[in-house]
Amino acid sequence: MEGLDVLAEMGELTRRGQAFALATVVWRQGPSSSQPGSRAIITAEGELHGWIGGACAEPVVIREAQQVIAEGTARLLLLGTPDQFGEAVPDGMTVVPISCQSEGALEIYIEPVMPVPHLVVIGSSPMAQTLAGLAMALGWRTDLVPGQDFSAESADERSMVVVATQGHDDEDVLERAARARPAYLGLVGSRRRGTAVLGYLAERGVPQEQLDRVRVPAGLDLGKTTHKEIAVAILAELVQLRASGAMARPKDSAKAGHVKAAEQRSKAEQDPVCGMTVAATAGSRPLRHDGVDYYFCCAGCRRAFEEDPDAYVKKETRC
To answer: Residues near 293 by Cβ (< 8 Å), separated by ≥ 6?
Structure first.
């Protein structure tokens, strides 16, 4: 995958609401297999689509990209041997020493691409249409769905759902929406109406844990307002909750992202000969010595280790 194919994959991941990182080669020092402008997509699971370099660069870029996704902050990497750069490294640049046999070097910019918010507005009233239009103006992925067309598959745990059917099968629609377990679920209506709807659903056996998450009435309390102002109040509440992190689920939180990245990093090892980061897989020429598995970036490093393993084991211990 390269060129326009990478851009097409970016669009597909964005439509599916998946977070990923985009790595772009901005400078190279030959010999190197990549070129300026080479791009690759790295998912949170560590899958790489595209091309940013060979076995020397790929494991390092995947590791760093997972950290970028977890932290939501871009970083600029300089990959090569320390003596190639000396004191010429600018502030803010992350230097990752690699001992590639080609003696090339790369500068790679890795940026996070986070999914845009997904809002599902259920209903066809002027208020529902206004709310959908406002969300679209913010660049949110927005679906305006008539009550009879909504199903639990229309949303997921990252979605925000506003039930604005306003008396037209509120109970059935809200029950379907609750099954999706969205990050936010609000019902447009008075507190009295909300109490009646939630009470009815409780009698039908809807779990109380799901009902407790329903916000009634949806939106900030602005007093008596017009339908357009109600839409603004709902959108303001959603923006406020997102900004505070109140809608983050455990698996979507930054903490969980760091844990996930740490789990992925645990699958990487350091080549004891050259110090490169390599994937702990069968493709990295594994070798067991004194009950410990070692992994290598190339056949040359593995051969050097086989000839004098104690020298490199001691070196690794000192590090």
So the answer is: 269, 280, 286, 287
